[in-house]
Amino acid sequence: MIFNNKSTTNFFYIDSQSKTFSLFYIVFLKYKYMSNLISLSNLFSILILGLSLYLFFSLEQNQSTTSPSFQNMAEEAPKSIYDFTVKDIHDADVCLKDYAGKVLLIVNVASKCGLTESNYKELNELYEKYKTQGFEVLAFPCNQFAGQEPGTHDEIKEVACSKFKAEFPVFAKIDVNGKDAAPLYQFLKSQKGGLFGNAIKWNFTKFLVNKEGKVVDRYAPTTGPLRIEKDIQGLLAVSA
């Protein structure tokens, strides 16, 4: 919209981010440069028109946030870990819905960490003791902490399954932090934050998941698996 007054030209564009300011600025310009042509009643009419346009655009914007596309986005947001598919150590797809009805302990593991031996030992104990009762350990190798999981998938499997005798599932190597973090871990962190933020702090952070696929607790790397045993027992006792 353009207003002219001798050599002065004003151009003002109305966009969705500045409707209120734009509309009333237009009114001001019209009054400033055309005050000799309009009466007070006309100015009042212009103000009413500007207010009406503002209300119209505001209503339109509010309606857009409740449109089907926004509703669909909300409906499609992950509700449990069963909404995710991950890769196993052989790069085959695994739908986590396959673990429905089980209590899960999800752990980011590493082969060369000072916590590796004790954690694998205690994870093995828990798995052996409760696997027939519906308990699973899901291990996700990660090399983001001091480069302590540098190996290939075959090398990781050799360490986990041969050296430490792990019988629970070991999955493909992933990132747990940063822009390339696995979607599963983005979800886990959003459900249970840690001390000083949601980021995973080190190897062997643990997430406990109930039989409905909901994250119920998070444990620091220094929390040994056997210290979680009572929490696991409590979830196993609950009917799915």
UniProtKB/TrEMBL annotation:
Gene3D superfamilies: Glutaredoxin. The keyword Zinc does not apply. Keywords: Membrane, Oxidoreductase, Peroxidase, Transmembrane, Transmembrane helix. Residues 75-240 form the Thioredoxin domain. One of its GO terms (cellular component) is cytosol. InterPro entries: Glutathione_peroxidase (IPR000889), GPX_AS (IPR029759), GPX_CS (IPR029760), Thioredoxin-like_sf (IPR036249), Thioredoxin_domain (IPR013766). It holds the Pfam family GSHPx. The chain crosses the membrane at residues 37-57. Coiled coil: none annotated. CDD domains: GSH_Peroxidase (cd00340). Belongs to the glutathione peroxidase family. This is Glutathione peroxidase.
